[in-house]
Amino acid sequence: MNLKPDSARNTARSPRLRRAKWRACFGLVLAIALFPKVSISAPAVPPVQTEVVREAPVVRRLELSGTVTSPQSSHISTSVEGLVSAVHFDSGARVARGDLLLELDAELEEAAYKQAEARTAQAAAELADAKRRLKIAESLAKREYGPKNAVEAGQAEVDIDTATHDSFIAEQKRRKAILARHKLPAPYDGVISQRMAEVGQWVQPGTAVFDLVSMRDFRIDVPVPQDYYARLRTGAHVSVEVDALPGVEIPARIGALIPVSDPDARTFTLRVLPERDDIPIAPGMSARVTVSLETGRRDLVVSRDALIRYPDGRVTVWVLEEDGDTMSVTERRIKIGLAFDGMVQVHSGLKTGDRVVVRGNESLREGQTVRLAS
Questions:
Q1: Which domains does the chain have, with CATH numbers?
Q2: Per the CB 3.0–4.6 Å rule, which of 85, 115, 255, 328 could disulfide with 273?
Q3: For the segment 223-253, what is each residue's pLDDT rounded down to a tens digit?
């Protein structure tokens, strides 16, 4: 095998080296031509929004769970016994006051009423005849043609027939009332939550045949610890939130305080009345009630958006520092208290007049220069 000397190999590679160098130079010249000016810009100054730390009344917020109830909820029953002949509404039906819900077989009562009506008519006729004969007796007595006691006897007969007539009128009214009670009307507007009667069933007075619930003027009953009874008596701001309207606070007011609701649990019932009647709720649903109680104290407060929370429990805020026209931020640890209406009570770490960052505080660094957002 023949081997070329090193000088020969270098001579063979030299044209390739020259071509590679030429390509590199050409690329450098092309880059300079295409990008004549390349500059490195300074880091942007982030915009922030700030808020002044101030003093305000401290409010305690109670978040409680309650149950929607109706002002009218009844077990409807008939007032007379009888055989069910017709049922006009089923569960879930919406009814108005006076709507006929159920009928009992009234054939026998109708006959009894007709009999009482006939007796009343007979007694009325007998009374009219007795009054006629009394007038005749009185006329004869004036002319002294009849016996002297005929007038007294006629008056007694009129009195007896009057009492009999009145008795039959009362019996007729009683039979009419019993007959009317064979029809069961709705006592108020509402929805039938349950039907317990069927055609052919024998019912007794007091036996529930329908459950009727009013669907207006709802209230929310909330169990509250007894410690807050005295504070709630003086009034408080109340709002309601329901699952059907998530995130919507519905204004409400305190309707009543029921003091002895559950003595074993040491709670009382707070009755809350929503101030809107278009809420999509029904009796038995749950609702969240927020009660704001004045504590009678004033303290420093900041917006909840200013807080930076760490996994180890630390809570800090970014405080704005001004040096002439330059503004920077420094992180400060604080101790917080009650939260209410988007604000948080500050026990320590801030003073009145400090300016804290409430927007743009997610990625700040200690001593970083910032600017106020327009």
A1: 48-57+298-372 (2.40.420.20), 61-71+217-295 (2.40.30.170), 79-104+182-215 (2.40.50.100), 106-181 (1.10.287)
A2: 255
A3: 988 888 877 876 788 899 988 888 888 999 9
Count CB atoms within 10 A of the CB of residue 203: 21
Tell me the per-residue pLDDT of 105-123, one tens digit each, with 9 for 90 and over. 999 999 999 999 999 999 9
**Stretch (H or E) spanning 374:** none
Written as one letter, the residue type at 366 is E
Nearest to 50 by CA among 368, 353, 332, 325: 353
278 and 216 Cβ atoms separated by less than 8 Å: no
**Residue 301 in contact with residue 77, Cβ under 8 Å?**
no
CA-wise closest residue to 289 among 270, 275, 276, 304 = 270
Sign of CA dihedral 247, 337, 344, 224: positive
How far apart are the C-alpha atoms of 372 and 367, rounded to whole Å? 15
* Residue recorded with tokens 């917006």: 303
The two structure tokens encoding residue 180: 């009317």
Q: Which residues contact 106 (CB under 8 A, 6 or more apart)?
A: 82, 85, 179, 182, 183
Question: Is 191 strand, coil or helix?
Answer: strand
